[in-house]
Amino acid sequence: MRAVVQRVSQASVTVDGKVVGAIEEPGLLVLVGITHDDTREQAAKLAARLWGLRILEGEKSCSDVAAPLLVISQFTLYADLAKGRRPSWSAAAPGPVAEPLVGAVVSALRDLGARVETGVFGANMKVALLGDGPVTIILDLPRS
């Protein structure tokens, strides 16, 4: 399981011209990629790491200041560019595997008390953000 985490002043995701998720205050934009052998346990670990990640202003975490998170699935985080110019997506889990695990990350965050907005799994999404810092972290969870 892999996440790209960006500290933002605000962020939104739009599908078919409609905003489907937005945070209008400082928080985190989280792009989540799932690979074939990821588990619900890893989803819970990722959620805990995100909730406690101290990258907000003043080295605070979302849990410290009740900051919101916008979580968006992104299979392209598992692109393989080792050969040629066309990425291979074979390391990304297929939708029926990935969708419930992205949902498990969101559910685990909400169980921890987080305010979470989301995109729409599998949709063509337009993501807008106002980066803060900029601060961008790549978080790879170890394989089980």
Estimate the mean pLDDT confidence: 96
Distance between the termini: 10 Å
Count all strands and give the number.
Answer: 6
CATH T-level fold name:
D-tyrosyl-trna(Tyr) Deacylase, Chain: A
CATH class: Alpha Beta
Share in helix: 10-25%
Order of helices and strands: EEEHHEHEE
CATH architecture field: 3-Layer(bba) Sandwich
Structural class: alpha/beta
| Count of alpha and pi helical runs | 3
Computed CA radius of gyration, to the nearest angstrom: 15 Å
Characterization of the model:
This protein has a single domain (2-140), classed as D-tyrosyl-trna(Tyr) Deacylase, Chain: A. The relative contact order is 0.31. Strands 1, 2, 3, 4, 5 and 6 form a 6-stranded mixed β-sheet that branches. Helix content is 24%, strand content 35%. It has 3 helices and 6 strands. The chain is globular and about 40 Å long. The longest helix is centred in the last third of the chain and has 17 residues, at 95-111. The model has no long low-confidence stretch (mean pLDDT 96). With 144 residues, it is α/β, with parallel strands linked by helices. Helix 1 packs across helix 3. The protein has helices at 40-52, 62-65, 95-111, and strands at 2-15, 18-23, 27-33, 69-73, 116-118, 125-140. A hairpin with a 2-residue loop joins strand 1 (2-15) and strand 2.
